[in-house]
Amino acid sequence: MKIEISYKLPGESLTVTREKENKDYSLKVAAAKGRFRLSIVPKRPLVMKNAMLTIKCDFSETEHFFVNGYQSWTPAREYSRTEEMHSLDRVPGMIRDRFSFESYGDYWFRSYKKGELHGFTFAYTRDSFDDCDLFGSLNEENAYLVITYQKDRNRIVLESDCEGRKIEEEFVLFDFVRYQGKTQETLKRYFSLYGTCEAPEIRGYTSWYLDYQDISQEKILNTLKSVDQKDFDLFQIDDGYETYVGDWLDIDPEKFPDGLSGIVKKIHDKGLKAGIWLAPFVCEKKSRVYAEHPEWLYRNKEDETVPAGSNWSGFMPLDLRKREVRRYIKDCLEFYRNLGFDFFKLDFLYAAAMIKSSRFTRAEMMHYGMKLLRDTLADRRILGCGVPLSSAFKLVDYCRIGMDISLDFDDKIYMRMMHNERISTKNTLQNTIYRHCMDGTVFRCDPDVYLLRDDRIRLTKEQREAVVMLAHLCGSVYMTSDDPGQYDKEKKELLARAQKLAGAKINRIDKYGTKIVLLFTKDGADGQMIYDTEKGVLI
Q1: Which own/partner contact pairs does 528-532 have at CB distance under 8 Å and 24+ positions apart?
Q2: What is the rounded distance in angstroms from the CA atom of residue 333 to the CA atom of residue 305?
Q3: What pairing do the DSSP bridges indicate for beta strands 2-8 and 46-56?
């Protein structure tokens, strides 16, 4: 294993690269039972540029490479040796800038190179006999582990995502395990190091995929009439109730003239938990927060605001380093907590990791933000979404593991050229399969909604079947935006079949071209499911 450390001395522009300790620092190394830990101990203040470990390998022509994408909406799947990762290289700069595509993923701080596959936190290679070689980080509160497979050079490069971090005392650069064995057993061994998640499975309704932002008091109450406790645990109000994103204390008076407290009571009267959606780390340009508190917005070293994306009127990260911002976020969460909401879907959380500081790595800043949410909502259930997954480990009860479901299979043709984090049923189903291994350990997995309705949707009947079956096989959050009162006998029977898969143990996953084969056990019986990734159907 080759160790390479790059750093600057404060006030100097020269970057120094060393393969071992020198007059500026020393290293502490500990290795035992498949675990490797490396800390840097500065002898004077240093500003980190990079820390890399290089491992020589011998990849076969039929090797499978699993890559875990940056955040909830970034692809996570196995690649063949000939496949390349999708980047923004083919998107014109004007389009990238206009829609802030680079902000959603890791494009703004990672390069996508031909012949390389890179991911975060954990990764593995496996052969056709299912012999797996896994790397898994235990250092995500300090620095994200970036794992790059240089396929053509037969190398694995492990990087500590610590660029720009000022080091004045001992700092852990790497802490990871390397395990080998059968894939599912090896994944279980790694994630078991984090313990277990005791949150129950959730069956719920969310307003998003029925009316999107076009919701109202009347629509919500009409739908609530069709939601029964025997079929659901949760009724969630999604985006659209607030005046503007960021103005969480301003309920839209035209859409909800009586506010939300009465709706919460009606939800509870039906024996259901009440859920609410917020994006606590951002505000949009049309918001009152944006206009009245420009000092709350995160600004880069050029004193410019930084876009977090193009949703709504365009939106920006709030600067969590400011006490006033943290107080506002807590006040907003406590407002809905005091209204009686039991369940909080917190979205677009990756914005916290966009804050660059010499005092924090991306991982430290993100962890700080997630800890703020958890501490504020200590007695409530949290579903994290749009978040670097390892920053949500053990700090949320549930977490989205894929992109938003699209109402057709893979969105419009021109959208497929855009960023990885776009809505896509095709992509999110693969995320659902390959990230199932986290379920019940670091959190419970949310594969996003299933939709069985026939109207206002372009997914075929067979594709809708694949969505609901895979959601129940691989996840623990079973949400829909359908009016359950409209289900006919056939849909009810399909849902019942899917529900029987909940709690199954997946024993093996194989990929043969465009087909994924899942072998599982449920109630002592073995089962098999074959999914066609190109057609979006079960075989």
Answers
A1: 529/469, 529/470, 529/473, 531/429, 531/433, 531/466, 531/470
A2: 25
A3: antiparallel
Q: Which residues are CB-contacts of 317 (< 8 A; sequence separation ≥ 6)?
A: 281, 282, 297, 298, 306, 308, 351, 352, 354, 355
Which residue positions in the chain have pLDDT lower than 50? none
Residue 421: per-residue pLDDT: 97
Residue with tokens 């009245």: 292
Token pair of 538 as six digits: 């079960």
Q: How far apart are CA 109 and CA 144, in angstroms?
A: 12
Alpha-carbon span 467 to 450, nearest angstrom: 6
d(CA 337, CA 443): 21
What pLDDT is attached to residue 14? 77
In terms of C-beta density within 10 A (0-12 exposed, 13-18 middle, 19 or more buried), how is residue 32 classed?
Answer: exposed
pLDDT of residue 201: 97
Do residues 509 and 435 make contact, with C-beta atoms less than 8 angstroms apart? no
Sheet holding 64-68, edge to edge: 25-32, 35-42, 171-182, 131-137, 122-126, 64-68, 76-79
Vertex 178: Cα angle to 175 and 180 (nearest 5): 165
pLDDT at res. 286? 98
DSSP letters, 199-252, are: PPPEEEEESHHHHTT---HHHHHHHHTT--TTT-SEEEE-TTSBSSTT-TT-B-
Q: Could you tell me the CA-to-CA distances from 442 to 60, 240, 404, 519 in Å, in that order?
A: 32, 30, 21, 23
**Which two structure tokens, joined as six digits, stand for 66?**
């699993």
Q: What is the pLDDT of residue 4?
A: 94
Return the pLDDT at 489. Answer: 95
The 3-state secondary structure of 317-373 reads EECCCCHHHHHHHHHHHHHHHHHCCCEEEECCHHHHHHCCECCECHHHHHHHHHHHH
Cβ neighbours of residue 293 closer than 8 Å, sequence gap 6 or more: 324
Token pair listed for 293: 């508190």
Q: How far apart are CA 394 and CA 197, in angstroms?
A: 7
Helices and strands (H and E) in the chain: how many? 13, 28
Q: Tell me, what's the pLDDT at 411? A: 85
Altogether, the residues listed in the chain come to a count of 539
Token pair listed for 334: 């406590």
- Long-range (24+ apart) CB contacts under 8 A made by 36-40 are 36/174, 36/175, 36/176, 36/177, 36/178, 37/172, 37/174, 37/175, 38/3, 38/172, 38/173, 38/174, 38/175, 39/170, 39/171, 39/172, 39/173, 40/5, 40/167, 40/170, 40/171, 40/173
pLDDT at 191: 98
| Residue 442 DSSP symbol | T
Task: Give the model's pLDDT for residue 18.
Answer: 79
Within 10 A of 13 (CB to CB), how many other CB atoms are there?
6
**DSSP H or E run through 490:** helix 489-499
